[in-house]
Queue: 2 jobs
Job 1
Amino acid sequence: MFIPTHCDGCSKTALVAELSITGGMAQCAECGGTMRVLPGESYSEDDIPLFNDLCAALDEVGLSQKHAAGLAAQLEIRRTQPPGHGLRQLAQVLPSLGILELIVANRATTLRKAESMLATLLGVVVAGRRPQSGLLSRPSGISTKDDETNTDERSQTG
């Protein structure tokens, strides 16, 4: 499983292999600093390209904290609406996210993942950090057989 993390040193936001995380922290492959676990869900290795695409899309837009907070509030409807509704709402405000509908191909589980990832990434912006896509390398010996598992809810650890 891969966990969303953020480095305050270089502003990298990345999915990091769970086994690379100790005490809610991991080492940043970009700057060597400390990456902190972000609240949210965990993902499979197959989800990394989508996560990185979302990071890049938000980085390109350059949202202010206030704007990100408003978008995050709009995205909260994802819990009560059909999959993809929140994503479509955001795409109206941020046209650069419109391409995501093609990428996720209206598959309910992928739409939910994209919305969950966006909620996590908007939280990074709201907290005053700017997400930039990146991926820490997976330590040797980690199996990728858990790709069949979709997202798992996990509690906030740090």
Job 2
Amino acid sequence: MKKIIPALLITSTLSGAVLANNSYHGTAMLAYATSDGEISGVEVEAEVTGFVGTFYLDPVSYGNHPYAEAAFLEKASSLNFGHTNSKFEAKSLGISNTNGETGIGFHLVQPESYFVFAAGYSKGDDSDSLNIRLGQYLTDYSMIMLGYDLTEPDDAEEISQFSIAYKHVAPFNGTTWAWEVEIYREDDDEFGDKDTGVSLEADYFLSRATSIGFFIETVSGDNDSKSYGFGGEHFFQPNVGIFLGFIRFDPDAQDSETDAFAISGEFRF
């Protein structure tokens, strides 16, 4: 389960040509998410649609892995491309903003040492973003990663974030767990805000094809908040899957709470 999530069920009629293979070379994911709620007593609404395409430098074997974790467990290197369109409205204030954002990136795993180097850049209508990741597989099932994110709005000071994350996928034996914990520090130079966040994301795989999961996050500092969510993913075939999810964002500010619903579809080829 992912925090920011995709949309559209891709019909299984596309899957026939791929079913004979036990590996895949790429993925195409379509996404839709909608949210509504209040921020400091003001009613707000938002929508996001997006596409993410990933091409793997070598075929990714399904092995005996949960389908959703095959690329991680096979230590796959990839190139990726994505585009999102978003809309935000606060009707009582007469605010309505739209934004388009396009990004490219790569995720490289050194085949002997299993050292990971990943980076991405995105350009939006009103900001640029850069992210860099350095990681290391500690075992065949676990990885630690350091991260740096920088966002530069066109009309404001930059926002930077440093993070450390650990991910583990237990060996599959009919069922299994996958979980990831992250700690990050964010600095907003425009307002002088400094926040520290801790998040936990976990999925329980009922089978190779089906999982249910949850997400929790707490932020402390100048913008205290907590978030939690849950969702489920199912692959109708090894190369065709759908995800449904819900997240609630609950900042400490008075009269503030938003709910988000998301759906995504993934096709592998």
